[in-house]
Amino acid sequence: MKYIRFSIVLGILGLLSASLITSSCRHTSPTGPTDTTIATDTSSCCHGRITLTVYDSATGHALDGGSASLYEDDQLVSTKPMNVNGTVWDGLCPGHYHFALSKDGYHSTEFALDSLGCNATREVHHTMVAETTNRGDSCCGGVVELTVTDSLTSHGISGAEVVIYYNGTELRSTITTDNGSARFDGLCMGSYRITINHDGYSQGVIEFNEECNATHGFTKSLLSTTTTSTCDTASLTIHVRDSLHQDTNISGAMVTIRIDGHSDNFASGTTTDGGYYYSDHNLPGHTTYIVTISKDGYNTNSFAVQIGDCKNYEELIYLSPQ
Known about the structure:
Blueprint: H1 2-28, E1 48-56, E2 67-72, E3 75-81, E4 87-92, E5 97-102, E6 109-112, E7 121-128, E8 142-150, E9 161-166, E10 169-175, E11 181-187, E12 190-197, E13 204-210, E14 215-222, E15 235-242, E16 254-259, E17 267-270, E18 276-278, E19 287-294, E20 301-307, E21 312-319
Parallel strand pairs: 1-7, 8-14, 15-21
Antiparallel strand pairs: 1-4, 2-3, 2-5, 5-6, 8-11, 9-10, 9-12, 12-13, 15-18, 16-17, 16-19, 19-20
């Protein structure tokens, strides 16, 4: 009986050994099944970065503390404290993002970005208005919106550096979006100057006076420095409107045009009932002109416009009441 039991145990052990050997051979056999799963990086476009810096709209000083929440569409990415050196989000995939900002003593605000591309790096500058600045006679809610275009194609120029100066001191800077737009808000009363720079183009300059909580809109055409053709049949159309009542056209405004660097006027005239001034079709192309618009009861506005080729250029200009 003991011999029989011992034989059974040996038989079981033999079967187990054979199974292990077969399993081992099956795993290492070149003709057996293989693991075809290969680790791949499915997020090769998810290394984007956004750096946010938030400023006091009145002083231009960077804010510290408070919270900044970044959303992709309606999904919260994360909430981080604001920092004077910039708050950073890494590992971002392509998509549409927007911010929600809050800080004690300031009005909460939300704003959206244009779409973020594959592994794009974006520096975002925004302002917050202190709660006290909207009380009483405060006037720090001004806005300027501009579009930067190529003077030859009229297409928006992306990636241009836009710097705004307040009473001669640099206030903030930003980069134009894919369609060439840029925006500054929280502007107080005073004199402003905007410079626009992009490789391959001459510098663009816009100057204006901000009244109480007015909104300004500008389109600035940049002249390509690589264009060599000439033209002497370009023209310029100026459309003048009231900055406080932006659907109100200003008639009878004096418009003078001179070539940059010259003191004599090249052309002059007054706006029509619809607020338009039309130059003759005899402007030399690839030239920078200084346009001055004045009318009783309004602040005078001067700006530079660059004529690129033989076509009509149109500028929408707002005059601020005195």
